[in-house]
Structure formats: structure tokens, C-alpha cells
Automatic annotation (TrEMBL):
Keywords: DNA-binding, Transcription, Transcription regulation. Residues 6-66 form the HTH tetR-type domain. Gene3D superfamilies: Homeodomain-like (1.10.10.60), Tetracycline Repressor, domain 2 (1.10.357.10). Residues 29-48 bind DNA. The keyword Transcription applies. InterPro entries: Homeodomain-like_sf, HTH_TetR, Tet_transcr_reg_TetR-rel_C_sf. GO terms for molecular function: DNA binding. This is Transcriptional regulator, TetR family. It comes from Actinacidiphila yanglinensis.
Length: 196
């Protein structure tokens, strides 16, 4: 008779996610994950997978959690594209300001770690990074930009958003981060005005 798992999977995955987020892929060992989750190495491997598998699970968990929030922020883009983009940035700024969470962004950190990731994990990290651009492009197209403008602003807004996470990790103040957002929103307002 198989024994019942004595841990909560969501709690263990969240603990591993936070550990990867705080330290990055390369600086997180299986022993670190064991300490973070409270599981021994064999339990990690049997229940959560090897380090690469667990990292991909954590990256997907993170991307879904914040992706849902980004999608909700962008939901009004067809009627109020500037409000939607401000709300999109607010998701990041609120996450950055939350003292219970690590600084930065797991997706941005993963993109920077691509040279040390296995090919499969690196490809998954690139794909995850691209999701933000796709959601932004759809929202900006709905907001009235033509395809070329929507592509350009989607790349720009995604890049600025990831930069906010990197800058916050380096200690940039909330006021400076908001100023960066303001420049991007102003540029988008001009493009939308010219388009109208």
C-alpha cells in the first residue's frame, strides 16, 4: 500500500519558487531546495522532479500567477489603452514593493541565466519571456494601434517592465521606477493620439 504524501504540494512549490526567485537557478542547489521546502532530496526528486523539472514548474507557476494579474490589468485595453498599460505596470510595481517577496522578477532572472540553463530549460525560459510581449501586443492592437505600432510598443513595454524588476533589485527607488513608467506611458499616449 502506497504511503500518503505528508506535505502540501502547493506549499512546497511556492517555497521552491521563492528560493529560485531569491537566488536564481545557478545559485540554487538541490540542498537549498531541500531546506526551503522541508523535503529531503529523494522526496524532491520523486514528488517535484529534478532541478530542471522543478525550475520549469516554478517558472510556469510564477508566469501563471502574475500573467493572470497582467491579463486582468489589460482587460480594459480596447476602451482605455493608457489605463490598461498603467495598470499593467502597477502589477509589477506592487510586486516590487511587497516586502514579503524577493526583489526582481523570476522571468527576467531566468532570461539572464539562459547561458547556464540546459537547452530545454533555456528554450522554456525564452518562451515564458515572450508571453508578456504577446499579451501586450494583443492589448495594444485592441487599443487602436496598428500592427507595426503594437509590435514596437509591445517589445518596448515588456522591456521596460523587465527593467523595472532589474532596477528594483539594484535598489532604485519607487519614485524613480514610477518616473520610468511615466515616460513609457507618455510615449504611448503620443502614439495613440497620432493614430486617432
Amino acid at each position: 500500500m502506497a504511503g500518503k504524501k505528508q506535505f502540501d504540494m502547493d506549499t512546497a512549490l511556492d517555497a521552491a519558487l521563492i528560493r529560485f526567485w531569491r537566488s536564481g537557478y545557478a545559485d540554487t542547489s538541490v540542498d537549498d531546495l531541500s531546506r526551503a521546502t522541508g523535503l529531503n532530496r529523494s522526496s524532491i526528486y520523486s514528488s517535484l522532479g529534478d532541478k530542471d523539472t522543478l525550475f520549469v514548474r516554478c517558472l510556469d507557476r510564477y508566469a501563471t500567477r502574475y500573467g493572470d494579474r497582467y491579463d486582468a490589468a489589460l482587460a480594459c485595453a480596447a476602451d482605455e489603452p493608457l489605463t490598461a498599460v498603467r495598470a499593467f505596470f502597477d502589477v509589477t510595481l506592487e510586486r516590487i514593493a511587497d516586502p514579503a517577496l524577493p526583489d526582481g522578477c523570476l522571468v527576467a532572472q531566468s532570461a539572464m541565466a539562459i547561458p547556464v540553463l540546459s537547452p530545454g530549460v533555456a528554450a522554456h525560459a525564452k518562451e515564458t519571456l515572450g508571453l508578456q510581449r504577446l499579451r501586450l501586443r494583443a492589448a495594444l492592437t485592441a487599443g487602436g494601434l496598428n500592427d507595426q505600432q503594437a509590435d514596437a510598443f509591445a517589445v518596448h513595454v515588456a522591456a521596460v517592465n523587465h527593467s523595472l524588476a532589474v532596477m528594483s533589485r539594484a535598489g532604485t527607488s519607487a519614485a524613480e521606477l514610477r518616473a520610468v513608467v511615466g515616460v513609457t506611458v507618455d510615449a504611448l499616449a503620443q502614439a495613440l493620439g497620432a493614430h486617432a
